[in-house]
Specification:
Elements: H1 2-19, E1 27-34, H2 41-55, E2 65-72, E3 76-80, H3 88-96, H4 107-118, E4 130-137, H5 144-156, E5 160-166, H6 172-178, E6 185-188, H7 198-207, H8 261-267, H9 269-272, E7 278-279, E8 282-283
Parallel strand pairs: 1-2, 1-4, 4-5, 5-6
Antiparallel strand pairs: 2-3, 7-8
């Protein structure tokens, strides 16, 4: 009995000690895992362990981090949706049950799949969560240009991409082009060395959440003004009523009020009509 209590206490210590540094900001975190023929079934287990151990650093739940996992080889497969699990134990059990596929390395199609199927409201993508994608691969894609084009599309849609390369078969230049910035390329010598970077995913994801409305924080530098006939003329004054990002309407009128109003006043002032103090009849 004493031994069982000691073991239980030790496991609880490990669990809570692993969570002490976890961020409480909302992160929608997706892992895109290479399951091609070069990986092999034994190494695929090591990759799954890496994903599970990385997620153990996060607080899992609807108010904090939700996670998705997709695998890819010749074709992509969604294994875990963002809204499938709201507790860590069920999530990790599901990850451990993912099967190895084998096949080619169609990274471009897989990245396109992520944008079309994973970071979508129907799959649990939250408007007030920072979108982070971790791409894990041990090789080069079978279509470099398509891969870079799809990665750029995701980045343009405010998805932060971390690229994890394993071994000597990867292309460092391709990984650098996939990642949101060069510092987000993580390279390890072999599959066993993945254990050295468990904490990196947590550190990067949590440090990327810096505003009230994290999903929408990363924006392009292009200033877009709505083309309606009553749109104000762009001027150089600080308080000009323009939209800083081009897709404010994507988020609907709820982005204009409540918690998101400070973000909207800086980024979607024209769409939200914050320049004249009203939004859909609400007076501020």
């Amino acid at each position: 009995m004493a031994e069982k209590l000691f073991l239980l206490g030790f496991l609880l210590f490990l669990y809570f000690s692993s969570c002490t540094c976890a961020c409480h900001d909302k992160v929608d975190l997706a892992f895109l895992v290479d399951s091609s023929g070069s990986v092999g079934s034994a190494n695929f287990v090591k990759v799954k362990n890496f994903v599970a151990s990385s997620l153990n650093r996060f607080i899992i739940g609807n108010r904090d981090t939700l996670a998705s996992v997709a695998t890819f080889s010749s074709t992509p497969h969604e294994e875990v949706k963002l809204n499938s699990f709201h507790d860590k134990l069920s999530l990790i059990n599901a990850i451990n049950g993912i099967r190895y596929i084998s096949g080619g390395t169609n990274t471009g199609q897989a990245l396109k799949f992520v944008g079309s199927n994973i970071f979508q409201p129907s799959s649990g993508d939250r408007i007030d969560a920072r979108n982070v994608l971790v791409v894990i691969t041990d090789g080069r894609s079978n279509n470099h240009l398509a891969t870079i084009a799809e990665a750029n599309h995701l980045k343009h849609n405010n998805i932060l991409i971390i690229a994890v390369g394993i071994g000597s078969g990867i292309s460092k230049s391709e990984l650098a082009a996939i990642a949101s910035r060069p510092s987000l390329v993580l390279h390890v010598e072999d599959f066993n060395a993945l254990s050295h970077i468990y904490d990196s995913i947590h550190s990067i994801a949590c440090s990327s959440v810096t505003t009230i409305h994290p999903t929408l924080k990363v924006t392009t530098t292009t200033t877009a003004v709505p083309t309606t006939t009553d749109a104000p003329t762009t001027t150089t004054t600080k308080n000009s009523c323009v939209d800083v990002i081009p897709n404010c309407d994507k988020y609907g009128p709820t982005v204009c009020i409540g918690t998101y109003k400070p973000w909207a006043s800086r980024n979607c002032a024209y769409y939200c009509k914050l320049c004249n103090g009203t939004v859909n009849g609400y007076v501020f």
